[in-house]
Write a structure and sequence with these properties.
heterodimer; A: 10-stranded antiparallel sheet; 4 helices; 10 strands; about 20% strand; globular; B: OB fold (Dihydrolipoamide Acetyltransferase, E2P); 5-stranded mixed beta barrel; about 5% helix
Chain lengths: ~325, ~140
């Protein structure tokens, strides 16, 4: 419990200035549910071509200029609307036109979704995290092929994991928010995980209990939904993170078709300091569709089949005179 | 699934590897396919599996000797396919398709579909409106 309190305190300190800044410039949308809570319900689309981390060529510059926005969006449209050509890398699972990563930069026109640290990049891994990653690889957990348990939760269709399931990716960048008295449910299209979040100030799970998708608790700060998620499993593994991964999210509806989202991620065993992103979600143009993944996961079978065939080929080659 | 080789419609040649950092997808390309084994398949769709994480298109390719080789080709996620304008009515058994892709590392008749072109010239996953919404006739900008 002490560890959780310490993590929370760190997150609060790290994000306080950003919290105040973001809330002061945003006028919340006044819609309420029948029972009087701010109404965040809907299917929200968070795809954007704004990268999570600031490309190094932008240095310390926070915002794109008009020309850069136009160029980036034109390039994105061209990738999506053109068939592959000789410049398209061969080793892509999906040709760009088969994906749906968006065509627009985030409306803030920042050079990265990360707003803190000021360099727009995830802080370096701690030595503990580097050791942890090496141990995981050495044990065949991240990338081994002995069996399915060696593959990622993603390849196994267990979970896209957090925060990945709410960060812009190649496709299916949608969540559905559904509310009831005392609860908010967030369904992530990838991989159809749903967080059912109590709002009644009940304590979180015991620190002894760890879950793939963590344990979320929420409350309202004015018209903003604040969600804290902890109790992650060590297997969640976002960029090397451990079981002490912690998320602090703020959802603020800013219009009929818009939600402002802010996320602070911390894990003192993984990064020296917390990091924060801001992004804007829009009403999805379509519905949120089921992403039932297990039954059709031929890819996992194929990966293991390839590995066995490589072993057989190597054994046969070794026995040749 | 048959593994008949010698398919005249299949072109396998060495290509220079283009190095790039793959974007996050459901699984890695290199664990399953060989970037040095491009294939071109022209045949008839026998089955379209609208399944996540990735769709699979089954194609019968007729060989010069009259035999048929069954291939299965990996495509994108059905959710995105639908958003980009393709429904189960748009891709059916019996349709002709040309597939450019990369073969499975172990030589099985399995490929990653890099470019999937229907007989009418449409490409799978290349939706017409580009807005991300299903093509339902309500968007005046939709191409016919």
């Amino acid at each position: 419990m002490k560890r959780s309190v310490a993590i929370l305190a760190g997150v609060i300190v790290a994000s306080a200035a950003i919290t105040l800044g973001a809330q002061s410039r945003t006028k919340p949308y006044a819609a309420k549910t029948a029972w009087g809570d701010p109404d965040l319900q809907g299917v929200w689309d968070y795809k954007t071509i704004t990268p999570l981390e600031r490309p190094t060529n932008f240095g310390n510059r926070q915002f794109l200029n008009d020309e850069e926005v136009a160029r980036l969006e034109a390039n994105a449209a061209k990738r999506l609307d053109s068939p592959p050509d000789e410049n398209t890398p061969a080793n892509l699972v999906h040709a760009p036109y088969m994906t749906d990563p968006g065509r627009k930069v985030d409306e803030d026109r920042r050079t990265s979704l990360i707003v803190d640290p000021p360099d727009g990049r995830i802080p370096p891994l701690t030595s503990e995290a580097q050791q942890r990653m090496a141990t995981r690889r050495g044990g065949g957990r991240d990338g081994g092929t002995d069996g399915p348990e060696n593959r990622s939760s993603l390849e196994r269709c267990i979970t896209w994991g957090l925060p990945t399931a709410i960060l812009p990716g190649l496709y299916n960048n949608n969540i559905r928010i559904l509310q009831g008295p005392g609860y908010v449910a967030i369904t992530h299209e990838m991989v159809h995980d749903t967080r059912i979040i109590p709002l009644d100030n009940r304590p979180g799970l015991s620190p002894k209990i760890h879950q793939w998708f963590g344990d979320s608790r929420g409350h309202w700060e004015g018209d903003t939904l604040v969600v804290e998620t902890a109790n992650f499993s060590d297997k969640t593994n976002y960029r090397g993170s451990g079981a002490t991964l912690h998320m602090l999210e703020h959802f603020t509806r800013t219009g009929k078709n818009s939600v402002e989202y802010r996320l602070t991620v911390s894990d003192p065993t993984t990064w020296a300091k917390a990091w924060t992103i801001e992004e804007h979600m829009r009403t999805s143009e379509g519905d949120l569709y089921e992403y039932a993944c297990h039954e059709g996961n031929y890819g996992l079978h194929n990966i293991l089949e390839e590995a066995r065939d490589e072993e057989k080929a190597a054994a046969a080659a070794a026995t040749k005179p | 699934m048959g593994k008949t080789l010698g398919n005249a419609c299949m072109v396998v040649s060495m290509l220079a590897l283009v190095t790039a950092r793959p974007a996050l997808a459901h699984h890695s390309f290199a664990a399953e396919f060989d970037a040095n084994a491009p294939v071109v398949l022209k045949g008839t769709i026998t089955k379209m599996e609208w399944i996540n994480p990735h769709s699979w298109i089954h194609v019968d390719v007729k060989n010069p000797d009259g035999t048929v080789t069954e291939w299965m080709v990996e495509g994108g996620t059905p959710n995105t396919l639908f958003r980009r304008g393709f429904t189960r009515e748009a891709v059916k058994a019996g349709m002709e398709i040309t597939v450019e892709g990369y073969r499975a590392k172990n030589g099985a008749n399995r490929a990653n579909g890099r470019d999937l072109i229907l007989a009418d010239g449409r490409r799978l996953f290349m939706g017409s409106s580009g807005t991300g919404a299903p093509v339902d006739g309500r968007d005046a900008s939709e191409k016919k």
